[in-house]
Design a protein that fits this description.
homodimer, 48% helix, 17% strand, eight-stranded mixed β-sheet
Chain lengths: 885, 885
């Protein structure tokens, strides 16, 4: 018979896959001799079989649970369901990968009318007993029996109102008894069955509920967001209860071995006396700082600090632990590697290298590249004097401005629409995740640094101000009050998660600077990575930013944005509506010096580094006014009959818009197709690039322009453009007697280009995979149309593991890239190959590019540090893979 | 030194690549001892080197020309440029692949003021001499010196008007002298140089002109249309002149050894006495039938028939020959395999097999599958009594209705717009090709069965009525008169190229029937082909047609057309605007019996054969009204305020149209994406298919439905749909206790599907390559947008060899197909794989499919015979390739 249940002393920390993170760590701590309430773990395999087997326990599971329960009774000297000396247990989920707040927990299991008597007698504390009982019914009713939590909350609220008290802990014993009675009535009313009295039945139902919760919506969403596979299953931890709510000599708390926000080596945490488990993290009462415990209970505090120091040394990483004090006795309830801000992660990793705890490669592996994002975003300009309207806890660093929105659903909708929104809530719950993901920042009026909002926001690298008590939210009227101010839905506010301040309106921000830890870690990364890291930048400002952040070149300099500048657009439009080559040339002649000056500035900024400039790509109608508006304008002009010249002009524009309108512009007249139809456009651009380079060379500045032709599907499209550019360049360079290093290459962004890369490499001197378009054509999915309509749903439902526009699809798009690299290098072994789609800054995709043998990735400037780290991690992963083989 | 020039006795018919078709045949005929005016051939290699070498003669060419000219002088006893006894030559192009009318010819070269004296003296015929001279100046001036032909024609016309004669041959000697003078003045005026007097210079210029004409626009267009490579080059034939214009004992003619229109074994041809070369084919004078020659010159006729019989036996194919009679002496001037109608091609091939001239495989190879098209199109319903308004020569069989258009440019434009047009011209020239290609039929008022219009139309399988003298065209007023009727531009007419009749308006047509020759040949094809041939058909009528034409199944039965029927559309729309699953289901419940009855009829028609039914594919907005119209309707309803219910309904429709509008519908919410978002639609369709099958099985009819899921890019899209259909089918079949053979498979129409075909084949029981969409996504080209805007230009300019939507692109799309086949069969070696894009009926693509190992091709019903033949030819080509290796 398969072993489905492990007693704590049968496991260790290496067994996470089987026992879940929580279980493996409980086993490890047991092995270390730390003060752990005893218990046992039901394996993830049991959960997987239960799920597969139409929610039936696998054979032998229940018997093994009973055996282990016996052992626990023996060790605890208590008996499960016994009136005199009842054993109470907690039942918690614990997956292999930590999923905080996502899964369900039940405390005080084993309580019923009978065992209550034993508890009262043994604790000699009726209030404690009934408090535990009502908590149990509430949790069990909500989690196992699926009754809405707010129904229980309402009963509790009513009782508090009746008794005119504010905190749960102030409710009288008779009040608690009343609550228990009403809870049971509620259960009966909602379910049509009595609340289960039999502790064995309670246990079985709780285990089943944990198993089932693996597939609840919150858990599934969390796994999507964090890219955790669906088939891991969760373990179930059954553990003897210890009680932090036995009075003021009891308490419960959470802590970190180092500050998870700054990384400082300090004792960091929060606790509440006379409270149980969830009270601290749920943010219902505002907890005290751990340093306070040193004063309130110096012995317990000393013990705690000793024990967690042992923990950190054992795990060689920051530990996030929970503890409970039952009548002055300390218990560690769980430990795990602590989540931390990016800033903290960097400091901790570097400090631990200095302390000799870990080596540099381990430090590099420790940092989640995506998390660096939060260090690379803006903060409020410190030179501006601002009066905050409110202050809360600095729960997750970074600043954000946005419109105030009060519900997760609306935040999701508006955020997806591209609006900047700040989600404002009393406190957040896992049900709000979908809205939090789409917000620019979170503001809560309750809860601490370890509240749900704070933890989640830190994980996502999103600014958060938590527990701002100044704020009074009126959900119904969709506004919040702060002192005498009223902020309505859609008003702009700015939050600063670094200081905890909240400001009215939008506020000037400044760009982030990299800390010395950040720079040090990236220098370690640079030493081992093999991929080059370029940036996508279209302006001198972005180029500078990119260079500052470590970009080794510009991988994609789009020229269309230069066409969009307000003073240029009329000239561009004149070019487009030109009837003939001559009048088109007149417009182009005006554009030439403008384009040239753009290139001069960018090339100067990027001196000595390659700058890959893409010739005009988008369909021409993108430069023309909106169709419906022009239609209306023409109708208007016709009716007034006043301005005939204007009418003529507008009619011409309208005619051209109509001519250029396309069914599927993505697949229409754009890229090199434009360049072939109107050769004079690319000729102007090539001339501008060459002339700009010459101007700089004459000033003694070394430049490396590379000219990139977009949307090539066939070598015969590239050939004439290549020849024409070569000819122009030769003419100018010969005339100016200048030698210029430059290349002409192409985007590989259509399947056919990848499939015929051997032919294309006969002309192209470099390839740049345009994975945005390549993903669109390989999947046959228009990103504009699909994301809202079905693509996100695909990801939610697991049809696609990732959104292929975020994470490069290895099986399809990736296969084309591999084909393209192989064929291209067959023709030209020294072909320079990179990627300039948005995937260039996404760590999984960077790893793919490393493995596919690309020369560089190119991404937005802020993502350059992420790519640098990810590229280093790709090398480390490859090494560890090779050493495992 | 390379040999660039071959005297006629140095070559043979196998040397076409080097000597061109004309030259190789002249050499062959010389070898056969036929009466050929002697001469020599400049090779295609010389042309290629000339083109490569910036229009310089390759080294040694001119010297070799001189050597061969010497030999020709010796053989002819005449001297080039000599006053007394001048040798005159023709200079003609001759490419390896026959390009009639495309390349340029110069006759009577060697004439000048001096040699004219010799010609007059020797021929004793001043009229002949000056007629020859003015022809030479006209041809040379036009072809070599690039002076517009109409300028020469105008001088000739003026002379005729002055002399009040109708035909060129009636112009007086003094008139001809005047013409020669004016021609020379014209040349000087246009070019600023005198017409060259030196015969050597004439010869050199003529050779250069032929070389250059390889790249003239007409030739390039012809090569595009006929898919002839651009790098073959043309040979130049220099041949002693013989003269058909020496009087009434002289003449010139063309003939076929069998009737090229019907295939009958008869002497077929036309001639003119006292005429030269181009007169017959140019259609300027209407020629006499060859049978007339038997009466006019019985000896010459007998000789001619004997000689061409020898020719046919030698070439084992119908010969298209030219001859000239110079003072009762017969000369054969050239021969080539005769172009013929499809009907003739079939009859000739089968007759030749019966005669033992060729074997069956040769017969199969002889037929151009594309040509069969003309046998498969409509003709005028013979049961209708119709009065033709005019009659001409039945120049190319088939009937067509269309709007009258008078210029090639407009015919091209309107034809590309999808309008049916009939190009009406006095006579056509190679400059009209671009318009002819886009017309449905050609009507000319002058010229015979071998006129340009007739030859080209037959080649393209396009109906043509030629030389309808009843018709008087007024180009300026854009109309033609016929008796007392006036037919204006854009009026509809119908032409019947089988009878030569022209009718007013559109006329009822009937479908073609296959001749017994056609059926016999296809039965030979069926015996050797390996590919199955299915048809794309959405209706019982099309299914029947397909089966009659030999389809072995339906490869693509689209279900969306069934949704478009007027009585169903409101229900479909109700389904689309449904807010919820329930009201959507109500609409679907109404559609179910309708869909079922469609499938019953189609499956019944196709009993015992597979029918592949594709579930709903297009985006839903295609079923909704036009956006702009609905917008207007809503505005209208709002202003009248009368019909509030209708307003509400229209507003809802408008809202839904707006919601469903897409930037790139090709890549949007369609295909299986719809099926996943609204599973109830596919469920209804699956149910309809299974229930229809059961209904027929109960009647004892064997059916083989196959259900096809469109637009799959990832196995996870197919999986849930597959499972859902399986479940529905199992439920119904179990309930009805029926065993049904059916399959569930998928389209492979996105690059990702081909690239992950191994995964997809784990569920899909068949693949059908949807090469229309696969071409769109592989190239990143929207066919709707591209064809008018740049794709045809790409083909014209040689950027693409073929339009990839017509001929499957082997290097890109084809590579994906091969990848898909290989991966699919790796998972499932017995996977059934076909193609259902429009390429399925295109011979080159059929050959590709054969070579790629597909099981079948599926095409429109009329293309089924073409595919059957092409599939057989693919086998023969493969065999001959293998035997060559």
């Amino acid at each position: 018979m398969k072993k489905y249940v492990y007693y704590f002393d049968e496991g260790n920390k290496e067994m996470k896959k089987l026992l879940g993170g929580k279980g493996a760590n409980l086993a490890e701590m047991t092995k270390m001799g730390l003060p752990i309430p005893q218990g046992f773990i039901i394996t993830t395999e049991a959960c997987i079989e239960y799920t597969k087997n139409q929610k039936q326990f696998p054979e032998g599971l229940w018997e093994q649970v009973q055996d282990n329960l016996k052992k626990l009774e023996k060790n605890s000297n208590k008996i499960f369901g016994n009136i005199e000396n009842p054993l109470l247990v907690s039942v918690r989920s614990g997956a292999a990968i930590s999923m905080p707040g996502m899964m369900d927990t039940i405390l005080n299991l084993g309580l019923n009318e009978h065992t209550m008597q034993g508890i009262i007698k043994k604790s000699n504390n009726e209030r404690f007993a009934f408090d535990s009982y009502r908590r149990f019914i509430q949790m069990f009713g909500n989690v196992v029996m699926d009754i809405k939590g707010e129904l229980f909350e309402r009963i509790l609220e009513e009782t508090k109102q009746k008794e005119k008290v504010e905190n749960d802990s102030e409710i009288s014993i008779s009040g608690l008894k009343e609550v228990v009675k009403k809870y049971k009535e509620l259960v009966y009313k909602e379910i049509g069955e009595k609340f289960p009295e039999d502790p064995q039945k309670q246990l079985r139902m709780a285990i089943e509920a944990v198993f089932s919760s693996w597939d609840n919506k919150r858990a599934v969403t969390y796994r999507r967001i964090h890219r955790i596979p669906d088939d891991l299953g969760t373990a179930v931890n059954v553990q003897e209860m210890v009680f932090g709510n036995m009075g003021t000599d009891s308490g419960t708390g959470v802590g970190f071995t180092r500050n998870p926000s700054t990384g400082e080596k300090e004792n960091y945490g929060e606790y509440l006396l006379n409270a149980q488990g969830e009270d601290v993290v749920a943010g219902i009462r505002t907890p005290k700082s751990l340093t306070q415990l040193e004063k309130e209970m110096p012995d317990v505090y000393k013990q705690l600090i000793e024990k967690v120091k042992i923990l950190e040394n054992n795990y060689k990483d920051v530990q996030d632990y929970e503890f409970t004090i039952e009548k002055n006795k300390l218990y560690i309830l769980q430990t795990r590697d602590g989540k931390r801000t990016a800033q903290a992660a960097l400091k901790i990793a570097i400090d631990m290298v200095k302390e000799g705890l870990i080596d540099k490669n381990t430090a590099l592996k420790r940092i989640d590249p995506n998390q660096l994002n939060q260090l690379l975003h803006r903060r409020i300009d410190p030179n501006i004097e601002l009066e905050p309207i409110a202050t809360g806890l600095p729960a997750s660093p970074g600043a954000a401005s946005g419109k105030v929105i009060f519900t997760a659903d609306e935040a999701e909708k508006r955020g997806k629409n591209g609006e900047a929104v700040i989600l404002v809530r009393q406190e957040t719950t896992p049900d709000d995740i979908h809205g939090m993901v789409q917000a620019k920042g979170i503001l809560t009026s309750r809860g601490g640094m370890t509240s749900h909002a704070a933890v989640v926001a830190r994980g996502m690298g999103m600014p958060c101000v938590a527990g701002s008590n100044d704020i009074i939210i009126n959900l119904e009227k969709e506004l919040f009050k702060v002192n005498d101010k009223i902020i309505k839905k859609d008003d702009y506010i700015t939050i600063d998660g670094g200081s905890g301040h909240v400001f009215m309106g939008k506020v000037p921000m400044i760009e982030p600077k990299m800390s010395k830890e950040f720079k040090l870690l990236l220098s370690w990364a640079d030493n081992i990575r093999k991929l080059g890291v370029y940036a996508n930048a279209d302006t001198p400002e972005d180029s500078k930013k990119a260079r500052d952040l470590g970009a080794e070149g510009i991988g994609l300099c789009r020229t269309e944005h230069m066409f969009m500048a307000p003073e240029r657009l009329p000239i561009v439009q004149a070019m487009i509506i030109a009837d003939n080559k001559k009048s088109r040339q007149i417009a182009l002649d005006k554009l030439l010096p403008m384009q040239k000056s753009d290139f001069v500035k960018i090339l100067e900024e990027m001196h000595d580094l390659p700058v890959i400039i893409r010739l005009l790509d988008p369909p021409l109608h993108e430069f023309l006014p909106n169709y419906e508006e022009t239609l209306a304008k023409v109708a208007q002009l016709k009716s007034t009959k006043e301005n005939k010249d204007e009418l003529k002009k507008q009619e011409k524009i309208l005619e051209r818009i109509e001519m250029l309108r396309e069914m599927n512009p993505m697949l229409g007249l754009r890229g090199c197709r434009l360049g072939l139809l109107y050769p004079e456009i690319y000729e102007m651009q090539a001339r501008a690039i060459i002339e700009a380079s010459i101007e700089l060379i004459k000033q003694g500045i070394r430049v490396k322009p590379e000219i990139m032709i977009p949307l090539v599907s066939h070598i015969n499209e590239l050939k004439p453009i290549y020849n024409s550019i070569k000819k122009i360049a030769k003419e100018i360079l010969t005339r100016e007697k200048i030698v210029l290093e430059y290349k002409i290459g192409t985007m590989i962004e259509l399947p056919r280009a990848a499939l015929t890369a051997d032919e294309i490499a006969e002309y192209a001197e470099f390839f740049s995979f345009g994975t945005n378009d390549l993903t669109q054509t390989t999947f046959g999915i228009s990103r504009d149309d699909a994301e809202g309509k079905f693509l996100l749903k695909y990801v939610e439902e697991g049809i696609l593991k990732d959104n292929p526009f975020e994470v490069l699809d290895p099986a399809g798009v990736g296969k084309l890239i591999k084909i393209g690299v192989e064929l291209g290098r067959k023709t030209n072994p020294h072909l320079e190959i990179g990627i300039c789609g948005e995937h260039g800054g996404e760590p999984n995709s960077v790893e793919f590019c490393h493995n596919a043998g690309l020369n560089y990735v190119s991404c937005s400037p802020f993502r350059v540090p992420i790519a640098r780290l990810a590229a280093a991690q790709a090398v480390l992963k490859e090494k560890s893979k090779n050493s495992n083989n």
